From TrEMBL:
Residues 23-210 form the SusD-like N-terminal domain. It comes from the Bacteria. Gene3D superfamilies: 1.25.40.390. This is SusD-like N-terminal domain-containing protein.
Length: 394
């Protein structure tokens, strides 16, 4: 699938209808206005989760786009597609095919979440999980475009203007606050509990978005509550991070829905391939336990490149959403400097807070938002097809 020419894909898209970039239908044949059973609503939720993990035909570039835009953690080995090079070089044109996917396909998750919210028999917990999906989907859009149209469950399919970046973040925050108040807490005795949204997952994403919105004190409160809750611990071995996971979506080999691990490996050297940048590697001290996340010893066999091994290379990488080390770093930034010391003691590191964030969260699709907080102003243009369909995007 990955090696099909994107030019063929482009032709197929041009021949298909694109009358309305936001008119995305649910793939499940259930009437949202009917009094559905709880099991039926749960089936709708599975579809919503899938849209986060697999938003388009080329989902890995939807997921990887923020890290590619940030650029400084990555060293390109080969660009087979110029569209990926456009992202890396910040030269994406409005007519770019990947750009179209990275706009309309995140609205798929929003559409599915809105469907669940409108079901009259959805429980508050189910609505909370749907609003978590909606919040995460909008966060992906914010990363790439900042101000985008806010489509809620009352959307009437009419042209809609983009909201301001601040309005988008506040919308995300309100969804996550509802999710936090209504989803059940994580059950530590359930090994699969971290695979779907929980109260703690909403708190973790809320901490991240508060920080992005300039409210570091509120971010610190959420982060500290998660740390003190005692359900998650920083692993001594960063490769064995199950107890660090607050939320992840599991990769699936049958669907090949997690290919970023492959793209970040030498296995993709003849395709669109990324190694680890030298200035990221330079952050690793001699005893840093995170060295196990990088194939440093293999460099003589891989053209001198070092590759990340944080993820599976079998097209089934999990999608990491939140881990407890991020909460330690947010709490430290909010003023609890002991949390930075605790993380550094486990990781055997003595970097600045900023560099600890960069190394600890590398290839978790967060770096671009950090650069924007530091003053990065580039954002992707709206796709030409979306502009043609909605004149208010101008």
């Amino acid at each position: 699938m990955k090696k099909i020419s994107i030019l063929i894909l482009s032709l197929g898209l041009l021949l298909s209808s694109c009358n309305n970039e936001l008119d995305i239908k649910s793939e499940v044949a259930l009437d949202a206005n009917a009094p559905l059973s709880s099991d039926d609503v749960d089936k709708l939720l599975v579809g919503a989760y899938r849209s986060v993990m697999y938003p388009s035909t080329y989902p890995y570039f939807n997921i990887m786009a923020p890290e590619i835009l940030a650029g400084d953690n990555l060293q390109p080995v080969k660009f087979q597609w110029v569209q990926v090079q456009y992202l890396y070089e910040h030269t994406t044109p409005p007519g770019d095919i990947l750009l179209s996917y990275m706009y309309k396909d995140f609205y798929k998750g929003i559409s599915r979440a809105n469907t669940i919210i409108k079901v009259p028999t959805s429980s508050n917990s189910q609505k909370g999980k749907a609003r978590y999906v909606r919040a995460l989907s909008y966060l992906r859009l914010y990363d790439l475009y900042e101000g985008v149209p806010l489509v809620d469950e009352n959307y009437d399919s009419q042209p809609i203007k983009p909201s301001s970046p601040k309005e988008v973040l506040n919308f995300i925050i309100n969804d996550l606050k509802f999710a936090k108040d209504n989803i059940e807490p994580l059950n530590v005795n359930d090994p699969k509990a971290s695979l779907t949204p929980t109260k703690e997952a909403a708190m973790a994403l809320l901490a991240r978005v508060y920080r992005m919105n300039g409210d570091i004190q509120s971010a610190g409160i959420e982060a500290e509550a998660l740390i003190q809750g005692g359900k998650f611990t920083i692993a001594n071995n960063p490769k064995d991070y199950n107890n660090e996971i607050i939320l992840k979506f599991a990769g699936n080999k049958a669907e090949e829905n997690g290919s970023w691990g492959w793209i970040l490996s030498y296995d993709a050297k003849t395709w669109n391939c990324f190694a680890v940048s030298q200035n990221l590697l330079q952050l690793l001290g001699p005893d840093d336990t995170r060295k196990v996340l990088f194939d440093i010893a293999e460099a003589p066999l891989t053209g001198g490149f070092v590759f990340s091994n944080k993820y599976s290379r079998s097209d089934d990488s999990d999608l990491l959403i939140s881990r407890i080390p991020e909460m330690y770093l947010i709490s430290a930034e909010a003023g609890n400097t002991n949390r930075l010391t605790e993380l550094q003691t486990i990781r055997k590191s003595n970097l600045s807070l900023e560099n600890e964030r960069r190394l600890e969260l590398s290839f978790e699709w967060i770096r671009w938002s950090d650069l924007k907080l530091k003053g990065e102003t580039y954002k992707l243009p709206f796709p030409q097809g979306a502009v043609d369909a909605n004149e208010l995007l101008n």
